[in-house]
Amino acid sequence: MLRAGGGRREALRVSAEVAPPAVVAGGLITVGTEWENPDMQEADAETEVLIVGGGPVGLTARALLSRWGVRALTVEKHHDLSPFPRARLVNVRSMEIYRQLGAAARITANAFAPEYGRVRFRDTLYDRDFATAAMVGVHAPVPESPVTGVVTSQDRLEPALLAATDAPVRFGVEVIDLMEEAESVVAVLVDRRSGAQTRVRARYAVAADGANSTVRQRLGIDTVGPGALGGFTTVVFDADLERWCARRPAGVYVTAHGSFAPLYPEGGWAWFGPSPDDAAGTDWSDLVSRALGPGAGVRADVVRVQHWVMNAFVAERFRHGRILLAGDAAHALPITGGLGLNTGVADVHNLCWKLAGALQGWAEPSLLETYETERQPVAHRTLHQAVTNTRLLIRVQNRRREQLRNSGVAPVHVELPWTDQYFAQLGLVLGVAYDSDAVLTPDGTPLEPSGMGTDYVPTAQPGHRMPHLWLTDDRSTLDAVGEWFTLLTPDPAHWARYATASWPLHIEALPDEHTDPCGLGPQGALLIRPDGHIGAHWPDRPPSDTTLHHALTALTRSTTP
Predict the structure, then answer these.
(1) Can you give the pLDDT at residue 30?
(2) Which of 149-153, 293-297, 298-302 has the highest mean pLDDT?
(3) How far is CA 403 from CA 124, 272, 408, in A?
(4) d(Cα 397, Cα 374) in Å, to the nearest integer?
(5) So what's the pLDDT on residue 416?
(6) How does DSSP assign 278-323, residue by residue?
(7) Given Cys at both, which of 4, 154, 178, 406 links 86, Cβ 3.0 to 4.6 Å?
(8) What is the mean predicted confidence (pLDDT) over 466-489?
(9) How many CB atoms lie within 10 A of CB 193?
(10) What is the spatial distance between Cα 101 and Cα 96, in angstroms, rounded to a whole number?
(11) Which of 178, 195, 168, 180 has its CA nearest to residue 75?
């Protein structure tokens, strides 16, 4: 683990300000930014859910399950949290979920200011912009959400997620075998320092162990899609670039010679681009310095180098019995557009309430079948968009570089490296609609396909995310959603007569000014699932006294009388 060396370099080595306090959790002792694993005992342990992978998706699942009162153990093969920036963007939908978890304020406090929610295009970092575009929902608030997305580094995000709950986490522990029994999953874990093995029995397992998922490979689940798009390199470096960037801030500067990204508000930079043929013999300081521009007069002080493969695929199945795939284990998306991490966060937001229902008895285990039904189509559509934009960006960068090489001057006419859908992604982010047995549509009619593209049009139709509407000056309809089903209605007293204790249910008043946008009459209602998607819509009073009971029974596949 890299140590703080003082001054600007400290920001590159350690995120000390956001390191979690000293805690003891499971087999993990955490003190500041140091982690030490005591010897693991050979005795078997039991938990309700085993989460494999302690990155942002696994840590989000851990926090969500904790809110439901579900016992979960998270294991991560690396010995600590990610020391590398990696993911850069937490979009507006993910921040809505983190607001629900009480983590949004901490994430925002350690992120960049909103004006960094922009991408700038230059020939070199030293040159002026030839194009720029704002990241919608990040650069400025949007009326469709109570929160704003942020530009932040993964090594700043993960400590905030780790601190969201005290549920046990074991670092430096790897899953080497996974076996299904009739009512459980048994995992064999190995401590990577001591070699000691132990067995953990769980009712379910969530595999959030990345694009090279050990769990997915052991289950023999294939993937579909383009696969590896190429080898890339990220170089973390220190340099004084403030005079070019302070007045034109951005989360990413795309140049003809690779992309640059500021790492932390207090300093630090990263360059990333295709790996050269002779990566082992490359002078990375020279390469990055040349990409800064011939007139820059700045030398990049390299801190660390990481080689990685840009993958693009979706798993053929998201579920194998009691084992469920999430995040990059289920779908690896190119980094262009910042969709990968956020799609994984949405995965576990969809999954964890269903796991809670199956474990706590208010939903049938077969409800978990709807996880793949709902999330796999989203993964395919998002992959298509991300691959299209990545290939376009690479093609335009290559063409721009060739033009500069041949002419020695920047071309007058510039092909912009994006489509209309590249930055205006609210359709992809907020417009997701689910069509499954966990959604009740009028007369059983299928949902209209979600555009999931440029435009987002709020709608209160079943399957869609509940639109953001202010219930009070500081409380959104999305804040009414939690570890329960939410019934929003202009007449709570009428619907309270039909409430049942068989399911977690909150009934809340919807102000009269919101009834028309939601398509509701004076006694109409919306039944919202715990993940914020609308499960049922009644334009007016319930057709019968058993309407609500039957709806909850159907949404949870329950056999409760």
Answers:
(1) 30
(2) 149-153
(3) 14, 21, 8
(4) 36
(5) 57
(6) TGGG--HHHHHHHHH-TT-----EEEEEEEEEEEEEEES-SEETTE
(7) 154
(8) 97
(9) 13
(10) 9
(11) 168
- 532-555 tens-digit pLDDT: 999 999 999 998 999 999 999 999
Using CA atoms, how far apart are residues 330 and 347, in angstroms rounded to an integer?
9
Alpha-carbon distances, residue 406 vs 256, 400, 402, 409 (angstroms): 14, 10, 6, 8
Whole-angstrom distance, CA of residue 552 vs CA of residue 486? 11
Give the model's pLDDT for residue 342: 95
Cβ(191)–Cβ(40) below 8 Å = yes
**Pick from 297, 271, 446: which is nearest to 262 by CA?**
271
CA pseudo-torsion sign 457, 458, 459, 465:
positive
Q: For residue 217, what is the enclosing H or E element?
A: helix 214-219
Which residue has tokens 């076996």? 179
Backbone angles phi, psi at 368, to 5 degrees: -65, -20
Strand ranges (E), 129-184 = 131-134, 150-151, 169-171, 173-180
Q: Which two tokens stand for residue 287?
A: 């390469």
Q: The whole model's pTM is what?
A: 0.89
Retrieve residue 268's tokens. Answer: 């630090």
CB burial string 268-285: b at 16+ within 10 A, e below:
bbbbbbebeeeeeeeebe
